[in-house]
Amino acid sequence: MGLRRNTAYEHQERINEALYLIHADLSGELDISSLAERACYSPYHFQRIFKQITGESVHDYVRRSRLEWAANLLIYNPDTAIVEIATECGFYSNASFNHAFKAFFDCSPSVWRREGYENRSRTLKALWSASDANPHRKYYADTLQACDQPDLPPVTIRHLASQPVAYIRHVGYDQGIGAVWARLLDWATNHNVDPEQQQMIALHHSNPDLIPFDRCRYVACLTLPSKIYPSDGVGVMEIPGGLHACCEAEGGFGDLLYLMRNLYMYWLPASDYRARSIPPHACYQENHFINRSRRFRLEFCIPVSCKR
Q1: pLDDT tens, 14-36?
Q2: DSSP letters along 201-221, please?
């Protein structure tokens, strides 16, 4: 049993290296050979183990990640040309991007930007808000219809330094995230890292208005005081620095979805900034997944660049 557990952890650590390469730059070539080399596997074994870990083939994972983020940027950055967004997300032919996008979302990028996103979002939210098994059904019901611009918290633009972190990936914006944090904090204690002296950070890869909550991708991260190597299934990476739009928030489980939506759908398009192809992150002062109050207090940070 111990050997099988160690093998599973080793596979996860090595696939994490490939996943980091994918999400660090969606515009890159991201071919199987280079990803396999990053994970220290032969291309054949890499593809087999990647699907075992992620549930998707390498090709499908990369394509889905690119298209989902392109779909977001079409909305978040309304003044950016479609061809520029396509290139930023790894499509170097406008024709191939249009074809892939239409096959995935059932409409062209231009229609998606004009009305397709809202139509798809309303259809999905009507379905999700009716499900008793959905922990976010109130959010979906509340945001089912377009509404007037909400009150937005103060937003400050700051240049953040890159941060080395230990991390564990999780699929689902759900209460199971608590177990991920418990495992990460146990790992830290066992590796002589004091969690009380480090920063807990959560990466939010997915747009919950577009992706079902149980398929949204979340990454629990803990900053590191010194160089530490991956072990026991816990990865090590660097959260990119640069310009960020930051605001403070507090609340309980599910409340962060409202803030994410309001910032991306209302504040960002009207601002002097555009979203970068890097997921936003939340820096916890209080983490509702592990504390007794079940309340969070955090700073939410969106990677941005100045509009040209």
Answers
A1: 999 999 999 999 999 999 999 99
A2: EEEE-S-TTTS-GGG-EEEEE
Counting beta carbons within 10 angstroms of the beta carbon of residue 75, is it exposed (0 to 12), middle (13 to 18) or buried (19 or more)? buried
Summarize pLDDT for 174-206 with one digit per residue, the tens: 999 999 999 999 999 999 999 999 999 999 999
Strand partners, 166: 222, 236
Q: Is the pLDDT of residue 1 over 60?
A: no
Tokens in use for 253? 């489980």
| Largest pairwise CA distance in the chain | 57
**Strand, helix or coil at 71?**
helix
pLDDT tens digit string along 39-84? 999 999 999 999 999 999 999 999 999 999 999 999 999 999 999 9
- Is the overall model pTM greater than 0.90, yes or no? yes
The SS3 of residue 106 is: coil
Residue 135's Cβ-count burial label (10 Å; 0-12, 13-18, 19+) is middle
Cα–Cα distances (Å) from 232 to 11, 188, 236, 295, in that order, read: 10, 11, 11, 29
Instruction: Name the one residue in this structure whose structure tokens are 């950070």.
Output: 201
- Amino acid at site 267: W
What Cα–Cα distance (Å) separates residue 212 from each residue in 85, 171, 174, 275?
24, 10, 11, 22
With 70 as the cut, is the pLDDT of residue 147 above it? no
Question: What Cα–Cα distance (Å) separates residue 74 from each residue in 77, 82, 243?
Answer: 6, 7, 20
Structural domains in the chain, sorted by start: 2-105 (1.10.10.60), 156-306 (3.20.80.10)
